[in-house]
Amino acid sequence: MNVKMHETAVVEKGTKLGEGTSIWHNAHVREGVVMGKNCNAGHCAYIGKDVKVGDNVKIGNKVSVFQGSEIGSNCFIGP
Q: What is the pTM of this model?
């Protein structure tokens, strides 16, 4: 699978990351997260448990998305 994860990123067990998704340095992706294709979780982003993210979503640097949130496709979530 073509997923990029920085060595300092924390991606917990039980996540599903789509093709072409990137998780940048110091980002934290919690268990149960489902991210679609071509997504980007920026520097120090936090994605809480059971968050659902569509395709082509950019979650900006230092953004927190809290447990149970759902984000549709083709969105930008900024700080």
A: 0.93
What are 12's two structure tokens? 């917990």
CA angle 25, 40, 8 (to 5 degrees): 15
Radius of gyration, alpha carbons of the chain: 11
Contact 12, 29 (CB under 8 A): yes
Name residues whose C-beta falls within 8 Å of residue 46's C-beta, 6 or more positions apart in sequence.
Answer: 27, 28, 63, 64, 65
Query: Low-confidence residues of the chain, pLDDT below 50?
Result: none
Contacts of 28 by beta carbon, 8 Å cutoff, 6+ apart: 9, 10, 45, 46, 47
CA–CA gap between residue 19 and residue 66 (Å, rounded):
23
